[in-house]
Amino acid sequence: MYSLQRDDENYLEVVEKYDNESFPEGERPVDLYSEAFGELMQGMSETDADLLGVVYEELGMDSDHFGQYFTPHNVCDAKAEMMIGADNEELEEPVTVADPASGSGRLLLYAAKKIPENLEAVFYGQDKDSTCAKMTALNLCFFNMSGYAVQGDSLKLEKHRAWQTNGSSMGGSIQELGEDEFPEIDYDAVKDEVDEEETTEPENGAEKTDRSSVDRGNEAGENVVDLRETTLSEYQETDQR
User: From CA 100, how far away is CA 126, in angstroms rounded?
Assistant: First the structure.
């Protein structure tokens, strides 16, 4: 985070916590960091996927205590298609996408893929876990997306740290914000919009969808697609996007 922000003071403070004197050049912790960063960039370029979140899960860093259950890639893609894909020609600028429990920002990444490149879009991800909030910020930067990543509890409307990212033709950039610069969401406006959608009468006398019947699709004998998780090894062995 500090290196991407060109914050030398804090970057060197982190580097100095490691023993970079007892190893030959090329094997020092700072050298391994540089190599790992390069491997991450190459891996994301080849897969066009959230590898930070995959590594986080593969290392067993996700927490049941925090209720961390990362949404599988194919489910993220399906959600983005349902919410944006079919209606992207009717989108109005700026397109805004928010995820109040963003994890590594995976849902935001798939949403971005469904939005036409000629439209301005702003993405907002918030997570109570510090590492997850930082992964969201890094992914927004890596994938050249403009938006905000916030560490804080969405349910309690708490914000502790925030980063702003900006996409450009030269690539993404990232900057940590001061408390007086934290992004704000008009939750009352969002609630009013949701309430309006829920009370809108269907056109042409069409019946409203009974969600309970959709949820019982398996019991009704309908075909149900088995959605599975995608692992890091599958990205290494295929050219899946």
Answer: 5
